[in-house]
Amino acid sequence: MRILRDETGAAPIEGLMEGLLLLTWIMVAYQFYDAFRLRALVGSATYTVADLISRQKGAIGPAFIDGNKHIFDQMTQVHDSSRSWMRVTLVTCPATSTDLLPCDGTIKQFRMDTSYATGTHAALTQADITAAGSRVPVMGAGDAAVVLETFYSYWPIFDIADKTMTLDGQTSFTLGLGSGIVFREFVVTRPRGPHTVWNSSK
């Protein structure tokens, strides 16, 4: 057929189509770069806040944790503070005169002293700490640690991944990163001075 053998075309139209494809590729590539940049930023901010808490010699409380959450938001440059939250849990390795075994989360469990989460999020329970025991380093009998968890909901610059595209009327697919990604960090820090204590009025 002549239409199949015809190689004529309009350069502006081809350039426009290729330009759109190139622009789409640049948008997706930059979105992935931005996601990895924020992922690293969330990790750095989490370790910074954990270090601040570990250096606190006095008691900590809800106001102290909320203040540290504000620091976390400033470091991660979150546009909406409701898209991030943190949870602080104080754990201890129980010790008695007849029980001086170290806690490893398997043979001997950690004890949860206090847990607090910012906003309306749920605090951890003893069952949660027991289930996450393998993520806490081995602690000596009578030792204590602070578990800091941070959560950051990624908000992509371009929301193209939240829209479904149809290729041939039947096959649907997404391109790029969606807004449902949550960056999570779990950091365990040993107090640098006396054991961290909780005071609800602080």
Q: What features would you describe in this structure?
A:
The structure is a single chain. By secondary structure, this protein is of the alpha+beta class. 34% of the residues lie in helices and 19% in strands. The strands form two sheets. A four-stranded antiparallel β-sheet has the order 2-1-3-6. It has a two-stranded antiparallel sheet with strand order 4-5. A hairpin with a 5-residue loop joins strand 4 and strand 5. Helix 2 runs antiparallel to helix 3. The model has no long low-confidence stretch (mean pLDDT 85).
Helix proportion of residues, in percent?
A: 25-40%
What is the mean pLDDT? Answer: 85
Strand order of the largest sheet: 2-1-3-6
Rough outline: elongated
Q: Number of helical runs?
A: 4
Classification by helices and strands: alpha+beta
Cα-atom Rg, whole angstroms? Answer: 25 Å
Give me the strand/helix succession.
Answer: HHHEEHEEEE
What low-confidence regions span 5 or more consecutive residues with pLDDT below 50? none
Number of strands: 6
Characterize the main sheet: 4 strands, antiparallel
Work out the strand percent: 15-25%
List the helices and strands and how they pair.
Blueprint: H1 2-5, H2 11-54, H3 62-76, E1 84-92, E2 111-117, H4 126-131, E3 144-153, E4 165-166, E5 172-173, E6 182-189
Antiparallel strand pairs: 1-2, 1-3, 3-6, 4-5
